[in-house]
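Thread: "does anyone have the structure for this chain?"

Original post by V.I.:
We have the sequence but no experimental structure in hand. Need at least a predicted one for the grant figures.
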Amino acid sequence: MAKRVKDRNIGEAVPTRSGEPAAKPRRFTLAELLVGAEHLPKLHAALKGALDGPSIGAELG
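Reply from O.Q.:
Generated one for you, tokens below.
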């Protein structure tokens, strides 16, 4: 977050670093990533007909 400094123009923001290190990105477990995967075969079968139609715009191959 920016802080104001007295020797600068009034209202000018000066970037400063926080004393805390940046947070590491969260890592997901395999179990978390596979939640809902049992429904994918049925979903794929339901969409198969929709994916086989002709292109109507500028879709990539």
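V.I.: this helps a lot. The radius of gyration is 26 Å.
O.Q.: and DSSP finds two helices and two strands in the chain.
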